[in-house]
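User: Hi! I'm working on a homework problem where we have to compare a predicted structure to a textbook description. Could you give me the structure for the chain below?
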Amino acid sequence: QVQLVESGGGLVQAGGSLRLSCAASGRTFSSYAMGWFRQAPGKEREFVAGINYSGDSRRYADSVKGRLTISRDNAKNTVYLQMNSLKPEDTAVYYCAKSRSSGWSISPVEYYYWGQGTQVTVSS
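Assistant: Happy to help. Predicted C-alpha cells:
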C-alpha cells in the first residue's frame, strides 16, 4: 500500500512563498508520474502541476505558470511544489497524487493514490 504524506502548507501573505513536500512510501516511486492538485471551498479539485517519472517532463495549469515549480527527488521518494508570488486565489487544500503511468496527466482519474492534503492560505 502506497502512502503519500504532504507537508509545508500554512498561512502566507500575498507575494510570499511556500514549499510543499510529498513523501511517498513504497519502492516504485521512481517509475510513476506524480501530480499536485488543489481544491478550494465550493470548487472542484483542479490540476496544478504534473511531473513524469524521471523529472524531465512537466506540465502546469495556466493559472500557476511562472510562479509554481514541481520537482522530484527519486532517491528520497519525494515530490515538491515550490510556490512563489502567491495570490489569494491560490488558497486551497493541496493534494499530491501518484499516477497510474510514467507520464503526467492533467486528469485526476489517472492518479490512484492520494495524500491527505495540506492547507495553503494566502492573505491579501
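For your comparison, note the following. Residues 68 and 83 are 5 Å apart (CA to CA). The mean pLDDT is 97. Good luck with the assignment!
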